[in-house]
Amino acid sequence: MRQTTIFIFLLIAIRTIAQTPLFIPDTLTGPNYNLTMHKDSVQFFSGMISQTYAFNANHYLGPTLILNNGTNVNITVNNQIGDTTTIHWHGLHVPAKWDGGPHSPILNNASWNPQFTVMNDAATYWYHPHLDMKTAVQAIKGAAGLIIVRDSAEATLTLPRKYGIDDFPIIVQCQQYDSLNQAMQLGMQDSTLLVNGTRANNSDSTYLDVPAQVIRLRLLNASGERAFNFGFTSPLHFYQIATDGGLLDLPHDTTRIRIAPGERAEILLNLNGMNGQTFYLMSYGAELPMGIQGGPTMPMSGGPPMDSPLNGINFNILKFNVVPPTTNPVTTIPSTLIANNPYQENQVNAYRQINFTADNDTVMDGPFYFNDSTFDMMRIDYVIPLNSVEVWTLVNKTMVAHPFHLHDEYFYILDRNGISATPEEQGKKDVILVPPYDSVRFITKFTDFADTVVPYMYHCHILMHEDAGMMGQFMVSPSAVGIKELSKNISEFFIYPNPASTILNIHHASYTPNETLLITDLLGAVVYKEKLCGIDNTISISTWGAGIYFYCLTPALSNGEGVSVRGKFVVQK
Ligand code: C2O
Ligand code: CU
Ligand code: CU
After folding, report:
1. Which of 184, 240, 310, 441 could form a disulfide with 252 if both were Cys (CB 3.0 to 4.6 A apart)?
2. pLDDT (tens digit, 9 = 90+) per residue, 492-507?
3. What are 196-208's pLDDT values in tens digits?
4. Considering only CA atoms, which residue is closest to atom 3 of ligand 1?
């Protein structure tokens, strides 16, 4: 018994010293996708195991979902983590009720069944939890995965697209673990690099064999905070072919690409004739300015330490060993890709400005706000008419950079500090890094999905900033005057008791006839839709199942303007 234990210890020791191949998540293809999110653990360090979250057969992260543009998908997410969660399809253009934001919780032991048509262009997207105030703690434990969307335009190009053979997922996370080897939610001393959940300790420990031909890397920064200034061992250059939401017009020949949390890029490397050579994916952090997380540590007076040993230095992330080419290799870089047609400023219906703010101008660790207000699930920050073409100006008035993310739609960058978008930012984007005191303008259009009940989010993708309230929400309204939020008057509207079990009382002091109360369950199914009959109303809920319900009170006023009040309550049995 004792000898066996020692033997196992030795085996683990040998395994940690030996080089580790990069883990490549398996793939799931449609139309039906089953994701079971569960608790797991991984031996990242010697000594204590690290508690993780994962999907399906994985111990960390989840399978890569392959989606085809124009097809219908049917996803079942089953939650087995012992806590409530949500799953958001980052970058996908889907109806708000299937977007998986904080308004769509999945209770422990429950399932959620989004069904939608894939409308996005071929590119790399991802999925991760989005529970209010708990995105960081769940995502850094490994609850995330990649999504690859394919479409006919991409299919006609000569590009590597054999998953795991010449087309590789590269999910990079930089995290902090505590003395008990557990991931830390506020890990600003992040120094543990994980690539596809494989621990990379800046040495030769993780490697990927790649064929001596053109290969494609799908880079995702799934870190809580750190931005990477990706490049390779000099003098290797590469070609960026895609931004967050689609291919560029032309491959962009470069040696660096800065990717902030939430952002993705696809790149091609031409390894023809390099059989037998090795090189590294690196982050050239020494080239990042102070203020961008990953650049030099800011001198701090008070507050938590942010002095990760990786700040402001260049470091290796992943080793590549070049091996003989495959049969039928791709050996050339295409000269053109697709034709992007950015929206034009002369089509604009509305301009909005979002200032990134803090309590004062010495704050480096938050909380941060949008326009001085913190996230509130009951407040709709913008009601946006369907098909509105909009220019949003993001002005960072804080000392640190923030990657701004918009749900529902991709956008095109117009300019940064008045200077037109650079080639690497000319494609479709859904995250944009705004360095301190910079101002970025983007243009977008809110198409397809009007919904007067469930809002979409926009937020900082530094997960601790998001969880601390650097988030807002918008609704896409079917008409220009469709909805007006009554959050200031919310106290004159009550639903009680909460939690409720047999009876639900609805009190609306300024009741007007024709007000309709709509109640939906977690899956978006309508469980109740009736007109209120007066200021005080009682409905029987004795047959309703336990869980979270959402309500929406929508009067149709004589002037045609709808006003809605939204919220949620819990039924306990
Ligand atoms: Cu990647 Cu709202 O999230
Ligand atoms: Cu998103
Ligand atoms: Cu932020």
Report:
1. 240
2. 677 877 778 888 888 7
3. 999 986 566 799 9
4. 90
Average pLDDT over residues 524-535: 85
Q: Which of 403, 362, 419 is nearest to 264 (CA)?
A: 403
Report residues near ion ligand 3: CB below 5 Å.
402, 460, 462, 465
Please give the distance, rounded to the nearest whole angstrom, from the Cα atom of residue 145 to the centre of ligand 3: 22
Residues 6+ apart with CB under 8 A from 502: 540, 541, 542
For residue 459, the ligand 1 atom closest to its alpha carbon is: 2
493: tokens are 């509207």
Q: What is the DSSP string of 423-479?
A: GGGSS-BSEEEE-TT-EEEEEEE--S---SS-PEEEEESSHHHHHTT-EEEEEEESS
- Omega of the bond leading into 25 within 30 degrees of 0 (cis): no
Radius of gyration of the chain (CA): 24
- Farthest-apart Cα atoms in the chain, separation: 83
Q: Which DSSP string corresponds to 200-248? A: E-SSSSEEEEEESSEEEEEEEE--SS--EEEEESTT--EEEEEETTEEE
Indicate the helix (H) or strand (E) that contains 3: helix 2-17
Q: What is the DSSP letter of 332?
A: S
Which amino acid belongs to residue 368?
F
- Complete DSSP assignment for 179-193: TTSPBPTT-TT--EE
Map out the domains of the chain with their CATH numbers: 345-477 (2.60.40.420), 490-571 (2.60.40.3080)
Ligand 3 center to 78 CA (angstroms): 30
Pair 533, 505: CB distance under 8 Å: no
Residues 356/414, Cβ–Cβ less than 8 Å: no
Classify 164 in phi/psi space as left (phi over 0), alpha (psi -120 to 50) or beta.
left
Residue 470 CA to ligand 3 centre (angstroms) = 7
DSSP state letter for 308:
-
Q: In the prediction, which pLDDT does 263 show?
A: 98
Question: Residue 311 and residue 508: Cα distance in Å, rounded?
Answer: 54
Q: Are strands 503-508 and 419-420 parallel, antiparallel or unpaired?
A: unpaired
Contact 200, 317 (CB under 8 A): yes
What is the position in ligand 1's atom list of the atom closest to the CA of 457?
Answer: 2
Say yes or no to pLDDT of 159 above 80. yes
Q: CA 319 → CA 76, 169, 202, 268, 491, distances in Å?
A: 36, 14, 9, 16, 58
**Pocket-forming residues, ligand 1, beta carbon under 6 Å:** 88, 90, 128, 130, 262, 405, 407, 457, 459, 461
Strands 123-128, 88-90: parallel, antiparallel or unpaired by DSSP? antiparallel
Residue at 269: amino acid letter: L
